[in-house]
Amino acid sequence: MLQIFQLPASHGIERILLFLLLAVCILCAILVILLCQQKSPPLLRGRRNVFDCIKDTESCQNTSCSHVCLTETCVQAAATLLKNMDPIVSPCEDFYQFACGKWAQHHELPSDRSYYDTFSLMKDELKAKLRETVRRASCEEDSNATISAKNLYVSCMNESEYS
């Protein structure tokens, strides 16, 4: 005799759980899409130029604007960028001139170099800070690496032993 094996019919609870799982997955997908769209839009969207946007941030000083950084470092960086920009030039015509047009007015080319750019300036500032750091006397807050660097610097600069 031929017996046919039949799978048991799905129970009602299994169908309900499957439906709930599917509904939760769909809700999660919708939430992910909504959260991606909620990200803050670019600062310049809908603006005529960057200076309009900067004027708008002045109102943030009296209110809480979580999307604008107003720390000392951010303000100094923004001031440096603005100082080097040439707002007369259209960024669509010549973006480099717009972004860096006044840089040469504020930075003189050193006589010992054939070029001088922002990276050269940052390199010079970093060298000066490092030199100042290793020249300072060691203190308890210094890490072992800093103390070793200071000792190496002192030993290399101790010219009185060699004369």
UniProtKB/TrEMBL annotation:
SUPFAM superfamilies: Metalloproteases ('zincins'), catalytic domain
Transmembrane segments: 16-36
Domain (Peptidase M13 N-terminal) ranges: 91-161
PROSITE patterns: NEPRILYSIN (PS51885)
GO terms (BP aspect): protein processing
Domain of life (superkingdom): Eukaryota
Keyword Nucleus: no
GO cellular component terms attached to this protein's record: plasma membrane
Keyword field: Membrane, Transmembrane, Transmembrane helix
Presence of the UniProt keyword Transmembrane helix in the record: yes
InterPro entries assigned to the protein according to its UniProt record, in alphabetical order: MetalloPept_cat_dom_sf, Peptidase_M13, Peptidase_M13_N
GO molecular function: metalloendopeptidase activity
PANTHER family cross-referenced by the UniProt entry: PHOSPHATE-REGULATING NEUTRAL ENDOPEPTIDASE PHEX, ZINC METALLOPROTEASE FAMILY M13 NEPRILYSIN-RELATED
Similarity comment text for this entry: Belongs to the peptidase M13 family.
Protein name, UniProt field: Neprilysin-1
